[in-house]
Amino acid sequence: MRRFVAGLILAGALAACGQDTMPATEEAAAPEMDARMASGEAVQDALIAGAAAPAPAAPANEPGDTSNSRGQGTPGAPSQPNGPAPVLFLAYAYQMGLEIPSERLSGLVEAHVQACQSAGPRSCQLVGSNVSGDPESTMNGYVSLRGEPNWLRTFMSGLEAQADAAGGRILAETTNTEDLTRQIVDTEARQRAQTSLRDRLQRLLDSRPGRLSDLLEVERELARVQAEIDALQSNLAVMRTRVAMSELTLQYQSSPKPLRGDTFRPLGDAFAGFLGIVVAGFAAIITIIAGLLPFAIVLVPIVWAILRWRRARGGRFFGRKAEQAPAKSE
After folding, report:
1. What is the rounded average pLDDT of the residues 237-255?
2. Which of 26, 81, 122, 220 is 20 to 30 A removed from 44 (C-alpha atoms)?
3. Alpha helix positions (H), the chain
């Protein structure tokens, strides 16, 4: 009995071992297949998710990168251009009006002219100045100059104090700005292009001898290009001078006076010209008589002859005299 039970246990154990060993390969292959299926599904899910996912955020700027330092973190902010800020070529022109007492106006104008000349041509260049009028009445003047911006700023900052010290004031200030950036950049580009063309023409003239007509044609073109280069250089020099030296125009006028030296001048001029006015009237009458005298010499005899001829014909010019109608009897 014991042997029979032991045999049954042994047979069951062998059957269990056989079932465990038979699907061993299948059990080993199942995880690999599941892994492959899982990986394929993961790839497909990743592709679908990638099509619908938003774009990745831009990386933060490096410590030394300032190309996007402004507007960072603000949605829709305009992007800043990379590189340094563009250089602008601006020409400034200033105008100032000063009201100064007439007896001090000339001295203030002279002081401003001396200040410009003392600064030297590198800081200030005098364009023109003028003073006119009578110190006892009305005076006017102007000073036009070009100055280096820093010197000119200092000079203009002291004008108000100078006007106050002279007993006057500043009436008006005007600032005009002209942007010459485009003109200067375009002119420089044309100059570079013409210089390159000149160099090519010069090499062509030196390295390719040919017929005389061809050489003359190249020389004429070379001369034309060189003349254009010189003109462009002159224009650049003028524009750069306008940028480097700002213009200032000072207009001076005398302060109004209730009683000036020439207040009664019109009355004095009228008395002084009284005799001249009377003489001019007589001269006008004589001129009129002299102009009518020739007409009188010609017309008076003609009129006299016509009247005498009419009297001789009994008051008739043409035909017989009309008969008078008989008077009515009462």
Report:
1. 91
2. 26
3. 2-21, 24-52, 102-119, 149-157, 159-165, 181-207, 212-244, 265-272, 274-312
